[in-house]
Design brief:
By secondary structure, this protein is an all-alpha fold. It is 60% helix and 1% strand. The protein is elongated, with a radius of gyration of 37 Å.
Length: 537
């Protein structure tokens, strides 16, 4: 037991350069969390000598895992037996209460300031603490999880493109660090990412470390320590873990912004369709009124030539002009039904257009035109000419939304298990999916193979469309990730991939508060039906 009572010395051990660099990184990492709890930090170069009394390990465990400090410990232990008691309490806090596995680390290693064993202990703590951020039970999987995250986030960046296979040589030129920063905070590097030269290792590393510091990430690494033949893997991982913690929260806000972007773009699309409907309905109604006036004010033919000319004029109107207008009326019906269907599917309130533009108003004006046309045609008959009766197109029946498979069968005219563009358009209208004219071709090309859209692709598209989750609660929850939904600022809303135009649009719809913020949540909820409205509907 003499080793417990006699102070041993580790001064004879001479650490390698990589061990010294690793000790510097580990020291800086510990200091991040010690400072947050108000504890005295560890002096760089004295990591191995900072745990001999056990107090610093107690403080570090408290800072990282929120384990309470022991009630009975000696703050200024001098004697080795007293230090041993402190060390045992500290290791119990870490291993038993925080449940951190410390392979091969013994109490005497701390007492004797064992350089290598203390590095191993701190690495075990770093790996355990950060692995909990990945929600992995096995800390050994944290490395692979971090590696996969780095690959995903650097995909598409020049000279990196997700090709990261380790945490040492792949990071020497600094570009993976730069890519991660540019991915989450575009422009933070101060220069375009594509202008960076992989041969300028020191410049790239300094630029990345400086940019990260400005974002709140402590400089755990030094440029000199990265430009060696093989940078220390554990040091690099420790630094990248800190980047992950900051950037993962950015990923969450990005997902929230994307959720809101989907909401905004849906409403913009609906507004465009509504505007298109009203403009076209306005033009059609104006034309129908003109025809009523023309039919009611036609002059009686004075001779056969005049009667023949009027007949030719009527024929041309029947064959060329009227069919286009009747087809337009049918397309307006389809557009109106499509808008209302999309709104209902997404839980929105039904659209209420101006009374003059409602389908019933259009049909009423059409009925007045047909009545006037009937009188006009009779006048021509009375002059003993054979008149061409206008085709009674009748009203188009409003079909209910059919099952996806049935609609495919119905519009697959040649039964080749494929829909061409016209068949796809017709099928979409039949099931109540309104696609803007400018987007129809693009949607078809995304779904189609060389010979058209297959049954599987068609059904999957509709399933995806109708299964889209879009509720006021979910949207408000996403808004909360960006800021206060009832007091939203323009800066908080402007998160990738949201554009300035999209932010301006939604804020123009929201009520502006007295302090210059916006009540976005109220605007969102007003667009959805409440339970009473749904039951009434």
């Amino acid at each position: 037991l003499w080793c417990f009572f006699v102070e041993m010395s580790s001064e004879e051990y001479q650490p390698a350069e990589w061990e010294l660099r690793q000790a510097t990184t580990f020291t800086r990492w510990c200091n991040i969390y010690l400072k947050k709890k108000g504890f005295k930090t560890i002096t760089e170069g004295n990591l191995h000598g900072s745990f001999g009394t056990g107090v610093k390990l107690m403080q570090l465990t408290n800072a990282l895992y929120d384990i309470k400090m022991p009630k009975k410990y000696k703050k200024n232990a001098k004697m080795r037996p007293v230090k041993l008691d402190n060390v045992n309490m500290a290791m119990a806090m870490l291993e038993k209460e925080a449940q951190v596995t410390l392979p091969h680390t013994k109490n005497v290693n701390l007492l004797d300031k064992d350089f290598k064993m203390i590095l191993g202990m701190i690495w075990a703590v770093i790996l355990d603490y950060n692995s909990r951020g990945f929600e992995m039970e096995d800390a050994s999987n944290a490395k692979e999880g971090l590696l996969l995250w780095c690959r995903k986030k650097t995909k598409g960046f020049q000279h990196v493109d997700g090709n990261i296979n380790n945490f040492h040589k792949n990071w020497k030129n600094g570009l993976p660090f730069c890519a991660l920063i540019e991915r989450h905070f575009p422009g933070q590097l101060g220069v375009p990412y594509d202008s960076l030269d992989p041969n300028n290792e020191s410049e790239n590393l300094e630029r990345a470390f400086k940019a990260a510091e400005e974002l709140g990430i402590d400089r755990l690494l030094d440029v000199e320590g990265m430009t060696v033949e093989r940078p220390d893997e554990k040091s690099v991982m420790t630094y990248v873990f800190e980047m992950y913690k900051l950037f993962a929260s950015q990923d969450q806000t990005e997902r929230a912004a994307k959720h809101l972007q989907t909401f905004i773009n849906f409403n913009r699309k609906i507004e465009k369709l509504e505007s298109d409907y009203e403009e076209r309905a306005k033009l059609l109604i104006a034309w129908l009124k003109e025809q009523v006036d023309r039919c009611n004010n036609v002059d009686e033919p004075k001779n056969v030539t005049a009667a023949a000319a009027e007949l030719d004029k009527y024929k041309k109107w029947i064959l060329e002009d009227k069919p286009k207008r009747l087809a337009e009326r049918m397309m307006l019906d389809e557009l109106y039904i499509g808008i209302q269907t999309e709104l209902k599917v997404h839980g929105r309130k039904m659209w209420v257009t101006m009374d003059d533009y409602k389908p019933d108003a259009v049909n009423q004006q059409l009925a007045e035109m047909e009545a006037a046309e009937k009188i006009y045609a009779q006048k021509i008959r009375d002059n003993r000419f054979k008149f061409v009766e206008s085709n009674d197109t009748g009203a188009v029946d409003e079909e209910k939304i059919k099952e996806f498979q049935e609609s495919f069968d119905h519009f697959d005219v040649n039964k080749n298990e494929r829909l061409d563009f016209d068949e796809f358009q017709a099928a979409m209208s039949a099931v109540g999916v309104a696609i803007p004219e400018g987007d129809q071709k693009e949607t078809f090309e995304k779904l189609a193979t060389d010979d058209g859209i297959s049954r599987e692709a068609y059904v999957q598209y509709l399933v995806t469309f109708y299964e889209m989750k879009d509720t006021p609660e979910s949207l408000v929850a996403s808004t909360q990730l960006l800021g206060d939904p009832k007091h939203m600022t323009r800066e908080a809303m402007l998160r990738p991939p949201m554009t300035q135009e999209e932010v301006d649009w939604i804020l123009s719809k929201a009520v502006e508060n007295d302090d210059g913020t916006y009540d976005v949540s109220s605007y969102v909820t007003t667009l959805f039906m409440d339970e009473t409205e749904e039951k009434t509907d």
